[in-house]
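Researcher: Structure for this, please.
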Amino acid sequence: FLKEAAARKIDLARPLVSILDRPFRSRMRRLMASEIPDDPRLALITPRMVLSHCTGVPNWARNQPLALQFRPGEKFGYSGEAYVYLQNVLEHVAGQPLQDLARRHVFDPLGMRDSSFVWRTDFDSRAAIGTEEGTPRPKWHPSEGLAAGTLHTTA
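Model: Predicted structure, token format:
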């Protein structure tokens, strides 16, 4: 994101709604809010606020109507939803999906050949299997990148 800001494609102080008026698309429906409220405080949210976790947007509304928890900029509150909002703005401005932007700006320049926001078949035999209460959990195979949670990488 900061590469796009450095190239002056995105202003860190510009309200996100002025760039993308429908910030929460149906991406990741099981996690994300089902509706965006008619809340004038949304017009206060800037990229800088998202990056510093002070938007007031909750961390995953889980298919509930989205309600800001506090006035943007007032205090800290981690929000995966806000990162997806910023991702949607970035993809809109750049005209590319997150995976392609990450590959161009981060993965390739840093030689991160084993990093991806989308699942690759070569991960099948190499990815660790998580557990929940001692029971192996099935591997999640995201087909589209989600800035707040689908990065697969190696140390």
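Researcher: Any notable elements?
Model: Residues 80-94 form the longest helix (15 residues). DSSP finds four helices and two strands in the chain.
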